[in-house]
Amino acid sequence: ETIVTMDTSSVKFGPGVTQELGFELSRLGVTNVMLVTDQVMSKHESVDQAILSIQKEAIKVKVFDQVRVEPTDESFKEAIRFAIDGQFDGYVAVGGGSSIDTAKAANLYATYPADFLEYVNAPIGKAVPVPGPLKPLFAIPTTSGTGSEITPNASFINNNDKRKMGINGEAIKPKYALLDPKLTISCPKF
Fold first, then answer.
1. pTM for the structure as a whole
2. Which of 43, 52, 90, 120 could form a disulfide with 30 if both were Cys (CB 3.0 to 4.6 A apart)?
3. How many angstroms separate the CA atoms of 19 and 147, rounded?
């Protein structure tokens, strides 16, 4: 294979770009947002910045901060229930790949409810293609390396057999990746 196609999320990069989140959501007509993060990040200024930007545009926002560092099928299902109950028309993930992948799953199953294994990759799942477009998802990574902010897959660990598996489909890819280098300053240096 010598030919590669790369169709990624729209990327906005720059110091302070998180402050443009509310404007971008408003521009798309989003009125009710689920912000997906974990408990540690929920106390971080990056989440505060995102919430302030969303609220500045008079958009409702509800925080789901129960993301697990290595998501499982059960943690995905918890986020999916939260998303269905909230009837959100937009999603924001702040954090690492776990938060972004959890937001992808929540968006998919809240938009097209189905048995959990419906969209999960074979051989464990049925690998049914995503039926259509999803609600706008904005990814704001606070780490670097996973690439989840521009990829069409969501990974999790199946609690039954402890295998890592996933859900794939171009439609689950975030609409926008807001890459704010200021948010990675607190990352550990390797």
1. 0.93
2. 90
3. 21
